[in-house]
Amino acid sequence: MIRINPVSDLHLDIASNELDGMPQVDADVTVVAGDAAAPGTLALRRVRELYPDRDRPLIYVAGNHDHYSHHDKHRPELKTTWEKQLRMMPEVAHELGITLLSDSSAEIGDVLFIGATLWTDFMVRPPFLMFGDAVRDATRRMNDYRMIKTGAGRSRDMLRPGQTIDAHKASVAYLEKALAERPAGQAAVVVTHHAPSPRSLLRWPAAADLDQCYASDLEARLMTGETAAELWLHGHVHANRDYVAGDTRVVANPRGYPDPRGPGGRENPAFDPCLVVDVEPRPAPGWRT
Predict the structure, then answer these.
(1) Which residues form the Calcineurin-like phosphoesterase domain (predicted)?
(2) How far apart are the first and last CA of the chain?
(3) Domain 2-279 classified CATH 3.60.21.10?
């Protein structure tokens, strides 16, 4: 058995949302499922400050905010591009002793951790919203497609939904392969930023505005059957989740933003920095317990 302390969406770069530290937790591994700060190179350094114990494995998966670029003449390091963060985050993670999972895997103890940002396929959406309209709506209204720059990083070099859909397809293919190729009996934990099931959405079972940017439906492909992971950790949806989809337990423990309705409040009051999830392999088919 392995004990995991999962958190996500710390958003430490937001005004009035800083943290001086995190409580001590009796866990074997800490998992941060993205969006600790922007850009990701800063996020990794802030996460290491919050979790300074290098004897405990620390896993990080980039979220959408990890690629955001900000223009601040006093802080030029905040200006970045998608490609630059994909290149630099592994270097910073290695320097800090953080296991960064980006369409990659790591074994900790007897457990295989498999991670990806994941993005989405734009297929989870209200029934009246056609695919093309969902893409156009996201382009107009989702900050990802304004705040994330590509290429030369000019104001017009904005990330496009087609790029994130391609990244989603590559991540799903990697996750499927890694789950299928792990040794029989080995427990697997998938860590993504975006949600793997519409059950994680705020208004599920109804599909709501911009849901196409928050979740995909991977239950049949990746979460059911002998190769399904024991546990799937995610972020992005700023509400706690704990449910079973197919054969996989899904858990989200996001901190989120301060509550704009009043001082001291939290967007997600259910966030628990001390949450611990235990993982052990399922019995193989035919076993009796």
Answers:
(1) 7-239
(2) 16
(3) yes
